[in-house]
Amino acid sequence: MSLTVADALALPGLESMHLRAGAAGLDNPVRWPYVAENEGIADWVMGGELIFVTGINHPRDEANLLQLVREAQQRVVAGMVILTGEEFIQQIPEAVIAEAERLGVPLLEQPYQLKMVVVTQAIGTALVQEQLLGRSRQHVLEQLLEGDYQSLDVLTQRAQTLHLPLAVPRQVALFKLENSERLFAGDDLQDAERSLQASRQRLQRRLEQALNDLGEPLALVCQGEHWIALLPAADAQREQLNRQLMTGLLDELNQTLAPLRLFLGLSAGGHGPSGYALALGEARQALVAAQSFPERLGLCCFNELGVLELLGAIRDRKLLDRFVDTTLGALIGDDSRHEPVLMPTLEAWFHENGNLALAAQRLAVHRNTLSYRMQRIEALTGRSFDDPHQRLNTAVALMIWRLSSPRNPRSPA
Question: pLDDT (tens digit, 9 = 90+) per residue, 102-130?
Fold first, then answer.
């Protein structure tokens, strides 16, 4: 919940401003107004700005206005306002309007008679009020999500005064953005930082839009590289719908975020305010599984964890570590001393339900090579995978290893 382009258009005193293109972006959040005085804006904005173009300090012909619209889209600004009148920019060229519509950039027209000081004061005041309200809403949600409160009644009463719809049962969606280090692998660190900030802006904007589409929206809580969303989920049918929608959203976002990668953990549904902290814990467990099993499209629901839910309830990590070491220690040690092939082989074999041909194809090796490796695995572990109990123990140990290993080795996709 933040001041949007549509909200800015509706502010008292700004009635003479009107939308010329880019209605699809009216829900874009506005971070602050910025008056463009240079030829371009790419080097001067970080995303979320409402750009004002006057033409006073720099000539603005059609080519330059087209350049500004394209840079606005690239830098993920909230929108662009062009001041028109007799002296500088007489009118907005049709080509500029068409380009803004094509790129989804909200394009507003402001007559010169409407003084900039009136516009910026109105928007600035609204931004301050909305930021204060937004911080209060986020603080309430963070307290509920972390279970950090003394009286739930007092906190829910406060939520009512802030118009937070807490009566709707929810499920927590915990998003995590990874691989930012890949952006900084080159020499241009400044460009990498701009790219990261633009990606974060696009991500936040799209998540907020998705929450609005679901109805009964609560503010998106941003914590570093994590975003927490509270989705309406009163029953199992709505949970399934949420999963489908989030799967599609995740696929859409990951296509545009590359080389960054977004992961998602979903809690069970039906949680009221007193259960938000529990739901966040469930989402965190599901997120760990989603990160460790990327073949699941980077998404996992708490209800899908199965045995992982039981493992997560074991507080003594030494028990799990000892189980993994007893079951797989010989393989892990061998892979650490040589080319790591045994653990990936075991993962591929389990992933293909013991089918040697499919596992070999998955690893791009000859079937005889895979068969030899499996014999070596059985020899090193002293276990026969013909025994269902030993096969189960190995599968569980492999699962724990994947979830707890700092390297998170993964089977080839």
Answer: 999 999 999 999 999 999 999 999 999 98
